[in-house]
From TrEMBL:
NCBIfam families: PRK09283.1. It comes from Micromonospora solifontis. The keyword Lyase applies. Belongs to the ALAD family. This is Delta-aminolevulinic acid dehydratase. GO terms for molecular function: porphobilinogen synthase activity. Keywords: Heme biosynthesis, Lyase, Porphyrin biosynthesis.
């Protein structure tokens, strides 16, 4: 031993020392639970590719929202699954559409006890499955889509949501949503911008959960996984347009992006541990190949360590319960 006095292992010798020197703690208050609600269901229904995740009925959604609050999660993010999809995704704007109705239900149930967020995107509501309106030749029309997002934002805010999450990756979406909210008197509703969103194969199981009709892909609006600097540009634009928080998505395959975004801006940074990240761990654990709980907490710790202050995860409730016991 050339330097006998330097022994890093002294700080790892038992659980008490390790706890004392731990640099990163995941707090339940920083976890957000994504939840699905499907129009017309009387009982919740399992999503085959997302074991443990449900398509809720309106009723079971309210109950699950209460459970999430009791577990201490910081927020819930709502996604609606309509029975009927159409060309323009009108169900997302209709005040009686499933997502807007579910926002009202959840707000009536939990009020301000947690932060209630809603996905602001058309893909769950369109018959073609794209995140925006199409031109006659089938391309996604950026500016026509912005008008739809503005109306959708106001409908969600009218339903009482605390925070909207524009996720369609249209240019200018944050500015348009912010202005529409302000013009409708919803200055208090904040914008969680999906600023960085890659055209990721990790979204696969989510598309089952929302019964997406998409054929083809989203590469003309979501980002190329090869690019990092482009993400900094996206984040800078969203902050300039009025984003209150910015999000990176997916999380684990993009920790370098999370870290670069954290260094670039002062607004809170969130990361979305998406469906495919969850499903791959669940599948390996179901085969007995990995220790499910340890891997779950290790992934959350790593996302937190990379610089995400807030994590959207399908494990939010379970992780919150485990973390409570731990600290
Ligand atoms: C778009 C949206 C998607 C996800 C969240 N918001 C799907 C997509 O862009 O294709 C994916 C989340 C996940 O995979 O868990 N409304």
């Amino acid at each position: 031993m050339p330097y006998p006095e330097i022994r890093p292992r002294r700080l790892r010798r038992n659980a008490a020392v390790r706890r004392l020197v731990s640099e990163t703690r995941v707090d339940p208050a920083e976890l957000v639970l994504p939840m699905f609600v499907k129009e017309g269901l009387t009982e919740p229904r399992a999503v085959a590719s997302l074991p443990g995740v449900l398509q809720h009925s309106r009723d079971s959604l309210r109950k699950a929202a209460v459970e999430a609050v009791q577990a201490g999660v910081g927020g819930i993010m709502l996604f609606g699954v309509p029975t009927r999809k159409d060309e323009t995704g009108s169900g997302g704007i209709d005040p009686d559409g499933i997502l807007n109705v579910a926002i009202r239900d959840v707000i009536a149930e939990v009020g301000d006890a947690t932060v209630v967020m809603s996905d602001l995107c058309l893909d769950e509501f369109t018959s073609h499955g794209h995140c925006g309106l199409l031109t006659p030749d089938g391309a996604v029309d950026n500016d026509a889509t912005l008008e739809a997002y503005a109306r959708m934002a106001v409908a969600q805010a009218d339903a009482g949501v605390h925070m909207v999450g524009p996720s369609g990756m249209m240019d200018g979406q944050v500015g348009v949503v912010r202005r529409a909210l302000d013009a409708a008197g919803h200055q208090d509703v904040s914008v969680l911008a999906y600023a960085v969103k890659y055209a990721s194969a990790f979204f696969g199981p989510f598309r089952d959960a929302v019964e997406s009709a998409l054929e083809g892909d989203r590469r003309a609006y979501q980002q190329d996984p090869a690019n990092l600097r482009e993400s900094l540009r996206e984040v800078e634009l969203d902050v300039a347009e009025g984003a209150d928080l910015v999000m990176v998505k997916p999380a684990l395959p993009y920790l370098d992006v999370v870290s670069a975004v954290r260094a670039a801006v002062d607004v809170p940074v969130a990361a979305y541990q998406v469906s495919g990240e969850y499903a791959t761990v669940e599948a390996a654990a179901a085969n007995g190949w990995i220790d499910r709980e340890r891997v779950m907490l290790e992934t959350l710790t790593s996302i937190r360590r990379a610089g995400a202050q807030i994590i959207l995860t399908y494990w939010a409730v379970e992780a919150a319960q485990l973390l409570r016991q731990r600290y």
